[in-house]
From TrEMBL:
It comes from uncultured Sulfurovum sp. This is Hemoglobin-like protein HbO. It holds the Pfam family Bac_globin. Gene3D superfamilies: Globins. The keyword Transport applies. The keyword Heme applies. Keywords: Heme, Iron, Metal-binding, Transport. One of its GO terms (molecular function) is heme binding.
Amino acid sequence: MNYTIIAHNANYMPPVQKPNLTFLPQIGEQGMRDLLSRFYACLDQSAIRNIFPAKNSAEMEEAAQTSADFFIQICGGPAYFNQRHGVPKMRQRHMPFSITAEGRLHWLVCFEEALKPLEASVKEEDLQSFWNYINTFSVMMINTQG
């Protein structure tokens, strides 16, 4: 598995390709929810914890499940995010929060940590497609220099 992080270039927005549709069936909806729970637990202890409005671990877990709704939908599952929260518009939703290139790196390190337990049970090309998606998606979320 290659967890290389693509460089951020403020003058270039890389094209984002959704993960392989075979990723979600391998982990299932609960597996996606577990993945996002691990990810948010890492964020809760990370250097970028301060950018999250959640006041405690329970609220971070709530955010994890909202995020799981998004990723289930992106990976070809039911449109939970649209049904529960409206159209994603993720860049617009994150605009109130200061997301720097350095913050992006912390975010990706937490995602890598959360994905590692899946390496033994998910086809490498499908796991790589998910990583590639979040890697390029994360570039779009940067909204603050510094």
